[in-house]
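Support reply, case 0932

Customer input (verbatim):
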Amino acid sequence: MPANYNGTWEMVTNENFEGYMVALGIDFATRKIAKHLKQTKEIVQNGDNFKTKTLSTFRNYDLDYTVGVEFEEHTKGLDNRVVKSLVTWDGDKLVCVQKGEKNNRGWKHWIEGDILHLELTCEDQVCHQTFKKKN
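Our regenerated output:
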């Protein structure tokens, strides 16, 4: 049985977000604002179907997907690209590979206790974020 990602998760740490945004080609002004934001993730999981909302005072990002089904993702409000995304299970980890202009792009989600980990990769940059489950 895969991990249960359901819930509201509040950001605790955000390591190397600046480097990750530079690798994506995000402009200086947006990076300056974005690196100071505390994000909240709302995840609704129904088996292999996920509805994820990433919320902040600056921008929100919605992502709906089914594990194992490739889809076209418009990263509107992020780096405004179109990528082909595929999310798969690796044990209890969700692993997403995003094919597009940038190499080595994707993310991994996993849970340890009441902490949700998100590892974002692009080119040679890795950003590690942690979120604590809100009661």
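We compared this against your earlier run and they match. Two observations from our side: The longest strand covers residues 7-15. The chain has two helices and ten strands. Please reopen the case if you see a mismatch on your end.
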